[in-house]
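Memo to structure team: turn this sequence into structure tokens by end of day. - J.P.
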Amino acid sequence: MLGQTNGMSKSKASISVQSQVTTMCFMQHRMEDTGHWHDGTLGSRLGDVPPISAVLGERPTVKKPVRPLMTTARCVLGTQMLEEQKAREADKVISADVVPKVFPVRSDQCSYPQSGKKGAKNPLYATSSQAYGNEVPMDHQLPDRFFPSTNKFTKGFVDGKPRYTGLNTAACLSRVHKALDEHY
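Reply from structure team:
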């Protein structure tokens, strides 16, 4: 055990001596450095160095591409439309992925037309379907808000209806003459 510890301390001492020698050689080399460039000119004499603004001014400038004119100011009608859209929105619901809108009709705005049937007021001729809409709805019977769909999926379609890609097996009739009909 004792011999191993002495061996370790000797190797550590030799490493530290080697690092000191390397440092001294580097310092001595730096002192011998004359400060000259590879072509022999002094490094301390720089000559006429232009200011940084002159150097940056010589760089080629890249022009921005021309854009179409954009209306940056909001017009009065546009702001009114945005305000109306904000007024129609209801309070956000955490569980919904769509912003709800205020239901457009209130109970005091509801009215039903009179029935055009003869004897509609007579209870002998009353039907069960006449019970619906017999009374105007109350405030608690109408919803406060609704969740409209944005139709983003269907608006992404280019064609109005899908194209027919099936096999046409009908005879091709000519518009000019019957002799030009193709029955194959």
